[in-house]
Amino acid sequence: MPEIVVLSGKGGAGKTSVTAALARAISAKEPIVLCDYDVDAPDLHILLQPKIVKRNDFISGHLARFNPDECIGCDQCLDFCRFDAISSTNEGEYPVNETLCEGCAVCVKLCPTGAFDWLPRYCGEHYQSDTRFGPLIHAQLAPGAENSGRLIVLLKKEARALAQSTQADIILSDGTPGIGCPVISSLSGASLVCAVIEAGASGIADFKRLAELTKHFRLPMAVIINKANLNLSQTEEARQAAEEAGATVLGTLPFTSAFTAAMARGEAIGETPSPLDAAFEQFATRLREMVLERQRHRTIIPIKEI
Question: Which one-letter DSSP state was computed for residue 96?
């Protein structure tokens, strides 16, 4: 199942707005499944206003929990814990600070009376929803929770299964900013990366790091240069950086109030006519062509358990 992952290398480049606009343009011609991999701070749902169909807890790792009935007050757990997650109270109890607990299990293993239980850790929720552009797979990681990479792998598998069951032609995913673990998980099993470059020094520098990561996974890349009319010299520098990275430059987008106006209405670009509609139609057509070409000569990195 071909998948297009929209990335930016940094936050604030316009990645989510571009994803929503591409979703509108592509879904008008063929069925798609949407996915939001930004599980730490998801925002694609703000534009798509999804109706949740399925809701599931995301359980990952374990958490220690103090059991006062088994405690003899030996204080050893205070020395065992290297993360200061266990504290002593005046009542002679040793509660676990869930935010600080790393799930190392040293207190569980070394407590002489077994006064700590070892429980599965709730890390957030993941959802299947309906939107006006097609089904959406998305999630919300709990504050301070970890294993975002594992949650993204779970979303990928759900999106792929849903695409097969609904006979969708393409999975369109809104990736995460940066180049860390969530981005690496986003690239697993992908067919094509669509990078949004903000035409500025920071945007170009971060794109170069993203291009190196994409090259490591041997994935083709298409590029959209955003805010291109603010600094023409940096727009040209962004274009050169994309070409040097072997990416296909789809085109540019101007700095315009059309994006913020669409966000205020809870819409994607194109739902209300705007000067950007033709550009996104061209982007969608070219991306579909690149995906088909990739499918003919594909070497997909398999999705692995984390």
Answer: B
The residue assigned the tokens 């709730």 is: 122
Alpha-carbon distance 281 to 29, whole Å?
10
Which of 5, 14, 3 is closest to 252 using CA atoms? 14
DSSP reduced 3-state for 273: coil
**pTM score, whole prediction:** 0.87
Beta strand 192-198 with 221-226 is parallel
Report how far residue 159's alpha carbon sits from residue 138's, in angstroms, rounded to the nearest whole number.
9
32 Cβ neighbours under 8 A, 6+ residues apart? 23, 26, 133, 134, 168, 169, 170, 171, 172
Q: Give tens-digit pLDDT for 48-97.
A: 999 999 999 999 989 999 999 999 999 999 999 999 999 988 788 899 99
Taking the C-alpha atoms of residue 162 and residue 146, their distance in angstroms, rounded to an integer, is 26
Comparing C-alpha atoms, which of 121, 117, 126 is closest to residue 59?
121
Dist. CA 222–CA 193, nearest whole Å: 6
Alpha-carbon distance 257 to 275, whole Å?
11
CA distance 214 to 217: 5
Q: 176 Cβ partners below 8 Å, 6+ apart?
A: 7, 37, 38, 39, 40, 148, 152, 182, 183, 186
Considering only CA atoms, give the Rg of the chain: 23
Contact 228, 41 (CB under 8 A): no
Helical axes 232-244 vs 201-216, angle rounded to 10° = 10
Within 10 angstroms of residue 167's Cβ, the number of other Cβ atoms is 7
Hey, how many other C-beta atoms are within 10 angstroms of the C-beta on 106? 16
Write out pLDDT tens, residues 97-129.
988 998 999 999 999 999 999 999 999 999 999
Q: Which H/E stretch holds residue 60?
A: strand 51-66
